[in-house]
Amino acid sequence: MPIDRATEGRRFIVMKIITSVILLALGMATFGAAQANAATVQITIKNTAEQDGIWIMRPWIGLHDGNFPTYMVGQPAASGIQHIAEDGVSGDTTNPTLLSGPPNVCAGDPTVYNTANPCQYDIFAAYSGGSQQVTIGGPTAPGGTLVATLTVDPLNLKSQYLSFIVMLVPSNDAFFGTDSAHPIRIYDSNGLFNGGLGPIRFKVSNATLFDAGTEVNTESSTDTAFFGQTVPGTGTHPDVIPVIHRHPGFGPLVLHGFNIYPGSQLNHFDRANTGSNVAEVTITELP
User: Fold this and answer.
1) What is the pLDDT of residue 9?
2) Given CB 3.0 to 4.6 Å as the disulfide criterion, which of 109, 172, 223, 270 pairs with 233?
3) pTM above 0.70, yes or no
4) 145/135 Cα distance (integer angstroms)
5) Is there a contact between 163 and 68 (Cβ–Cβ < 8 Å)?
6) Each residue of 182-232: pLDDT tens digit?
């Protein structure tokens, strides 16, 4: 039977159209499913210290599978923790509009900032179980609030846990945050935020402030961040206790000192050791 080339051509065109429609439908279904799974999570960190108390500095936040190592008390601090605790530097420059204050560039004293001692941003970026990270804000006085908003897939195993690290300023290497064993679970295996219990809220007390153990607490204006230090990483390394430990409290050079950061405003810290809490953390899934 002779081949009707016109008919075969029409069949070919029809089959191409049908295939294209099917592929488009599958793509739209996939996109729709992804959109349906998307959720918005807001992380708020408020400085609740007393007036003329301690400041908080530029939180780093990461979402992961629950196994990302941040720090453990009694163990030496990783370089990512060191750079945050000493200088408030995570090394994240991907979204400068979220940042304020001094540069967040992973650079400084070459004996401290080098390829063997990467910043937190690069450490987390190399971790296969992480989904996203963000660094926000800058030096924040008592009463101030820092807010991060993330779009999350609740069913993504790499987005169900949250870790954060925050520097205290002025200090040589004081910080608070989640350790390796206690990341915050924000989604359960079914994609339910906080197991259906609503927002996650907790306070950070003076009893849960840590010393990174990476720098001696001289509290000198030459090597204390936000007290006069001009080059990140400046200081005497390591501390006399070279592991992460409870912060001993701020000494007279901080309590009786002051700085003029930011701008020309005179800032006192004479109540840095008073009060029971320094911060309040709230994690919410927005409607």
Assistant:
1) 54
2) 109
3) yes
4) 14
5) yes
6) 999 999 999 999 999 999 999 999 989 999 999 999 999 889 988 888 999
Q: What are phi and psi of 276, to 5 degrees?
A: -95, -25
Selection from 48, 61, 52 nearest residue 98 by Cα: 61
Q: What residues contact residue 135 under an 8 Å CB cut-off, 6+ apart?
A: 58, 59, 60, 61, 90, 92, 98, 99, 104, 121
Encoded amino acid at 247, one letter: H
Residue 79 and residue 117 in contact, taking contact as beta carbons nearer than 8 Å: yes
Confidence band of 4 (pLDDT split at 50, 70, 90): low
Rg, Å, the chain Cα set: 24
At 24, which amino acid appears?
A: L
Rounded Cα distance, 66 and 82, in Å? 21
Measured CA to CA in angstroms, residue 19 lies from 14, 31, 74, 128, 283 at distances of 9, 18, 61, 36, 45
Q: Give the CA dihedral 178, 247, 212, 106, nearest 10 degrees.
A: 80
Residue 35, pLDDT > 50, answer: no
Structure-token pair, residue 235: 């200081």
Whether 123 and 160 have beta carbons less than 8 Å apart is answered as no
Q: Report the alpha-carbon distance of residue 73 to residue 245 in Å, rounded.
A: 6
Residue 161's φ and ψ, nearest 5 degrees, are -125, 150
Confidence at 262, pLDDT banded by 50, 70, 90:
low
Token pair 């089959």 is found at 15
- In three-state secondary structure terms, 287 is coil
Q: Mean of the pLDDT values across residues 162-184?
A: 97
> What are the φ and ψ backbone dihedral angles of 181, each rounded to 5 degrees?
-85, -10
